[in-house]
């Protein structure tokens, strides 16, 4: 079974993915794959620098510089996505060739990147905006203003709700959301009813 996990940044997808991993699933983190490609695929870096001059220095992508350019400009963000989605999808397909029994594709652009058709079930993880802002500030060490810019550049929760097969709302405590994730996996038959993961 291949699960597609999506939702805005700071919603808590990692909690669900951790539960899937503990159940024996293989996690394909598209953000991580993107960063692997930035190290291993010079053509990808060249394409980004070609469209966004000054965002690559000594073979390293300057993420915050690039972020400042794309998060407030829809056309620039669309250009960046076009450059990166095809490279990421090709790598996901390559990794899926090992045919794991259970895999989860973690992708904020699950639909735009053409990854949703690879999945048996798609799941949106959503959370209140203020919770997301706080998580991003702590997790990424960024300002409130920059956190809000990142969130504003992404789809609102309704967009994900309308497209996904399932929605998991992360609107309470971490413990409550973990239990919600486990209940979801039990309902799919991925873990036994009543079983608890380590």
What report would you give on this structure?
Helix 1 crosses helix 9 (174-187), helix 2 packs across helix 5 (74-96) and helix 6 (129-140) crosses helix 7. This protein is α/β, with parallel strands linked by helices and 198 residues long. The protein has helices at 13-22, 30-40, 42-51, 63-70, 74-96, 129-140, 144-152, 157-163, 174-187; strands at residues 2-6, 26-29, 56-57, 60-61, 103-106, 121-126, 166-169. Helix content is 53%, strand content 14%. Strand 3 and strand 4 form a beta hairpin.
> Helix count?
9
Main sheet record: 5 strands, parallel
Task: Report the count of strand segments.
Answer: 7
What class do helices, strands and sheet pairing give? alpha/beta
Secondary-structure topology with pairs:
Blueprint: E1 2-6, H1 13-22, E2 26-29, H2 30-40, H3 42-51, E3 56-57, E4 60-61, H4 63-70, H5 74-96, E5 103-106, E6 121-126, H6 129-140, H7 144-152, H8 157-163, E7 166-169, H9 174-187
Helix pairs in contact: 1-9, 2-5, 3-5, 6-7
Characteristics of this structure?
198 residues; alpha/beta; 5-stranded parallel beta sheet
Put the structure in a nutshell.
By secondary structure, the chain is of the alpha/beta class. The protein has nine helices and seven strands.
């Amino acid at each position: 079974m291949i699960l597609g996990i999506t939702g805005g940044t700071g919603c808590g997808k990692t909690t669900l993915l951790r539960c899937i991993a503990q159940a024996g699933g293989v996690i394909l983190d598209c953000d991580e794959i993107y960063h692997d490609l930035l190290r291993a695929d010079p053509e990808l870096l060249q394409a980004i620098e070609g469209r966004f001059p000054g965002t690559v220095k000594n073979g390293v992508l300057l993420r915050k510089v690039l972020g400042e350019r794309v998060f407030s400009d829809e056309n620039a963000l669309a250009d960046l996505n076009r450059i990166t989605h095809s490279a990421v999808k090709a790598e996901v397909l390559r990794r899926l060739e090992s045919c794991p029994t259970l895999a989860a594709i973690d992708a904020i652009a699950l639909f735009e990147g053409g990854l949703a058709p690879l999945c048996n079930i798609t799941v949106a993880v959503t959370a209140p905006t203020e919770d997301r802002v706080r998580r991003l500030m702590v997790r990424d060490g960024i300002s409130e203003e920059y956190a809000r810019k990142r969130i504003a550049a992404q789809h609102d929760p309704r967009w994900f709700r309308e497209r996904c097969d399932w929605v998991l709302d992360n609107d309470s405590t971490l413990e409550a959301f973990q239990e919600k994730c486990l209940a979801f996996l039990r309902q799919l038959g991925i873990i036994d009813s009543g079983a608890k993961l380590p």
